[in-house]
Amino acid sequence: MDRNPSPPSSEAEEEEGDAVGNTVYSKHWLFSILSRLIEVISPEKTEPTVSPEETQTELDEEMENDICKVWDMSMDEDVALFLQEFNAPDIFMGVFAKSKCPRLTEICVGILGNMACFQDICMSISKDENLGQVLLQRLCDSDSPTLLETSRLLLTCLSQPEVANVWVERIRENPSVYDCVCFIMSSSTNVELLVKVGEVVDKLFDLDEELMLNWIKNGTCRSVGPSVDDSPEELPDFKIVPCILEAAKQVRSDNPEGLDVYMHILQLLTTVDEGIQAIDMPLIGSLIRILQYMEGCGKRAVDNSKGSEQEDTGGADINEEDFHLKILKDICCELLSNMLQELTKENTLEGLHQGHLNEQTCSCAFQNLLPLYFASVESFLEVLREADQTLADNLEKCFPSLKVHA
């Protein structure tokens, strides 16, 4: 109980049977908050001197404090069951439909997220089709805290086997979810939000390969998405892989564990042919640049060792660093070999046009991949001949072993 605030003072606490379950929280007080919440979104309560916009976008400080207490209390199962019994989810649906106060929406989604941690309540929330659709619409919200709580709620539901399929099917039938998720991953700078959205995508792909394939192929279906000025606008033609890479780039320095989530998403994509083909040329270019960088590190290490042969200190650190660099190189080579083997003529032409593939980068790739990944290099070279015969001939001259097997 340390995680919850002290129960609000109320004369009703002294009444017999007023406690919520085995807690010291007052049913009367909680019910009064739910009643006040209804009043907040009730148009009859709008004062003539206050514009509707001001009423809806601002939350009274006392009300915010009280509803935040309910948010924290809802981590307790007895409180969550009480809220369920008194139709709190229906009240929250009214908030989502009528209120334009981002803070109030965030808190209500957060309370639902806490309630969904309990299996029976989660099943009830999940089976409510109207509520489910409304919650998915929150992914198109422009408010980052609301997006964070919505993502947390979805992840909680997707993590419960009894209802996971309900949400997978619901998401599959809502193309806007794809657009909104891609929008968040490609544009948000909120690392906590990016990590949570990544966890949702990772869970979805792990649960349902068909949905993953649909998202890989997506891009033709457009829908209305979030806008900072609340005016609907058409979203760009998103592709899932560039959005994942953009999110990973944003996350990498601030949250290494979050980066692992995105790396696992990419690993899941490579379990299907369509996913491998969707891994675009910028990633191939990045892998080759990593190999070029490590080659440069190796050359500098050799040069430095000539001037420090007499020094004994620091040797263990250097060896440990070399060990980790070798692991990184092995991972890069394996991923690069898989990707090169799946490239089509069209992919290769795109890479040449964008500058990710040229004689220098291809030479670096071949130098690191041969001879272990000979089959992958040979397969890529055949495709390269169709795209740029001159470049393929030049590479064969640099790597005679390829010409021998041609």
Structure commentary:
- The protein has 406 residues and is an all-alpha fold.
- Helix content is 70%, strand content 1%.
- It contains 23 helices and two strands.
- The protein has helices at residues 27-40, 52-57, 61-73, 77-85, 88-98, 102-115, 119-127, 129-137, 144-158, 161-172, 175-187, 191-207, 209-217, 240-251, 256-269, 273-278, 281-306, 315-341, 345-354, 359-369, 374-387, 389-398, 400-404; strands at residues 224-225, 233-234.
- The protein has a two-stranded antiparallel ribbon.
- The longest helix is centred in the last third of the chain and has 27 residues, at 315-341.
- It is elongated.
- It starts with 26 loop residues before the first helix and ends with a helix.
- The model is unreliable at 1-14 and 219-232 (pLDDT under 50).
